[in-house]
Amino acid sequence: GENVEQHPSTLSVQEGDSAVIKCTYSDSASNYFPWYKQELGKRPQLIIDIRSNVGEKKDQRIAVTLNKTAKHFSLHITETQPEDSAVYFCASPGLGTTDSWGKLQFGAGTQVVVTP
Amino acid sequence: ETGVTQSPTHLIKTRGQQVTLRCSSQSGHNTVSWYQQALGQGPQFIFQYYREEENGRGNFPPRFSGLQFPNYSSELNVNALELDDSALYLCASSLANLWGDETQYFGPGTRLLVL
Questions:
Q1: I want to staple B46 with a disulfide (CB 3.0 to 4.6 A). Which of A42, A92, B34, B37 is the partner?
Q2: pLDDT tens, A25-34?
């Protein structure tokens, strides 16, 4: 099945700086790569996702890049603000077998702390 | 908010007991996936229900079972509770497609504590 590795586990940035989180995946058939933000005690919230037919997608201060050859994708947050502080998870469905169809395999998460 | 709801929000049980958690999917969605999230970890896939049938299962024992109803809501049942079952249980609803890349939207979760 799919294996997703996420780095770093923690990331401290100054307000206004950029943050980058990287994930690698193992299943070359994977075609969908969402990113979720989870604030303490709350549900994971989808912030951006990318499908394999594009290499980059942006939404205001957030962007995701995908390199299918190297099997990695990254989340980029620019002009960070204190409200960006949360745990961020990457995920991938892993479509190598029908048993994994639609099943999201999550990374271990990155705790992002934005200090004013 | 996603429109996905879960009940109850919190639950305390003792070892050996049974628990039922409920999830109402977002309007227009036909698929519900269940995840277990232990403290400090990412969500782990338990199983998925599509058209009232289990459609994929993660590495969880048979004492984890589920149901999906005609209105696409779903239940997660856990028998013979163990201390390690203490976690946040999340359901996610989605609209299934032919490519397996449907977006999943999470409910607020049920926090289960097993004593």
A1: B34
A2: 998 888 889 9
Closest residue on chain A to B56 (Cα): A99
Inter-CA distances, A87 with A108, B45, B89, B112, Å: 10, 18, 17, 21
Contact A108 B42 (CB under 8 A): yes
State the first-to-last Cα distance of chain B, in angstroms, to the nearest integer.
32
d(CA A17, CA A48): 20
Confidence band of B1 (pLDDT split at 50, 70, 90) = low
d(CA A44, CA A50): 17
**3-class DSSP state of A91:** strand
Is some CB atom of chain B closer than 8 A to the CB atom of A45? yes
Q: Is A51 part of the contact surface with chain B (CB cutoff 8 Å)?
A: yes
Q: What is the pLDDT of residues B40-92, one digit of tens each?
A: 999 999 999 988 999 888 889 999 999 999 999 999 999 999 999 999 999 99
- Do A93 and B45 make contact, defined as CB atoms within 8 angstroms? no
Q: Give the DSSP letter of residue A27.
A: -
- Beta strands A62-67; A56-59: pairing state: antiparallel
Query: CB A108: neighbour CB atoms within 10 A?
Result: 16
The answer to whether B66 contacts chain A (CB < 8 Å) is: no
